[in-house]
Design goal:
With 128 residues, the protein is an alpha+beta fold. The protein has a single domain, classed as Umud Fragment, subunit A. The chain contains 2 helices and 10 strands; from the N terminus they run βββββββαβαββ. It has a 6-stranded antiparallel β-sheet with strand order 1-10-2-3-8-9. The longest helix has 13 residues. It is globular and about 45 Å long.
Length: 128
Amino acid sequence: MKIYYGFYDTREIQRGDIAVLRAASRTDPIINIVRAVPGDRFELKDLEEGGTLLLINGAELKNSAGRPYKFSGKRKQMLSLYERDYKGVIPANSYLLLGNLAEGSLDSSRFGLVEKAAIIGKASSSDK
């Protein structure tokens, strides 16, 4: 996997991009998938059998294996705060980043929305 540092200095961050971000608590960068961009609507939907699904622009969000992202506990709490505070809309210069694990990983379900300034590059498995 290649990392293109400074990629977003001259380009827009797109939904589906594999973003590289720095976190104050870590020496290594974190790599996550951009799942929602400014202006996207997001909503948490509680399931009768337990857990909470994440909807982006009205559609159930799924990982690359087709499994829906399902949150509970503190991960649900974190996303609920942003849903309430921003009335379900991703604010300007902020992004929802998730790993590919449907249950959550070290991503926005743990540390919240990510500001553009914290995204330091783009990762790619090809030379594009």
